[in-house]
Design goal:
By secondary structure, the chain is an alpha/beta fold. 33% of the residues lie in helices and 29% in strands. Strands 1, 2, 3, 4, 5, 6, 7 and 8 form an 8-stranded mixed beta sheet that branches. Bound molecules: guanosine-5'-triphosphate (GTP) and magnesium ion.
Length: 190
């Protein structure tokens, strides 16, 4: 979080984290569409995220301009160094879960990856604003929400559902992480 009180600008970094192909890039593409923004993507021909996606979103509040720099990590393990680099300076995380039954274990394991990535920069998973998004709710083998809430969750963190490919739940998810970051900022400035 960078605060420039002279200019009234606060900058937050939000990272979309989660297993490969869970829909992180789709989330920010849809978010860009609804907010009329452009996404800068670095990907391969197959559209797998190679480096990262990035966009910024500005919101005005209480005389401040809040700027959100939004990134997605590449979920594939071969790009772990890039993933770790992207996590530097993160303020808030959207953890995108693939609801498919086949990917349950991977999703669970990736929560530990997130914890390690945060630790790398001295951040504690408990104190970091995190929203867990259960994406791909349209899949025929999507696990029931109660199962995901039990198996792929973190104590005290909010969860939400999405069908990112149809734009469903995308803005709601972003608004949740934004709220948490704004709350944290308000507490900081008193
Ligand atoms: N059925 C379904 N497919 C989805 C949904 N969201 C994304 N997808 C598809 O899942 C695939 C992967 O989506 P991406 O957004 O590229 O996933 P990613 O998490 O960025 O993947 P990496 O960059 O490799 O980590 C694409 O074919 C998307 O169209 C969804 O809600 N439902
Ligand atoms: Mg991607």
């Amino acid at each position: 979080m960078l605060i420039d009180s002279a200019k009234g600008v606060v900058r937050f970094k939000v990272v979309y984290h989660g297993v490969a192909q869970s829909g992180k890039t789709t989330n920010i593409e849809q978010l860009a569409k609804t907010s009329d923004l452009d996404v800068l993507s670095f990907d391969t021909k197959e559209e797998r995220t190679l480096v990262f996606d990035y966009m910024t979103k500005k919101v005005s509040m209480d005389g401040f301009t809040l700027t959100f720099s939004i990134y997605t990590i590449p979920g594939q393990d071969i790009y772990r160094d890039i993933r770790k680099m992207i996590m530097r300076g993160v303020d808030g995380v959207v953890f995108v879960v693939d609801s498919s039954e086949k990917r349950l274990q991977e999703n669970k394991d990736f929560l530990k990856v997130l914890e390690e990535d945060l630790k790398l920069y001295g951040k504690n998973i408990k104190e970091t604003p995190i929203v867990i998004q259960y994406n791909k709710r349209d899949l025929p083998d999507a696990l029931p929400i109660e199962v995901l809430k039990r198996e792929v969750s973190l104590p005290g963190k909010r969860t939400t559902e999405a069908v990112a490919v149809q734009g469903k739940g995308v803005e709601e998810t972003f608004n949740m992480i934004m709220e948490e970051l704004v709350d944290k900022f308000r507490k900081m400035v008193g």
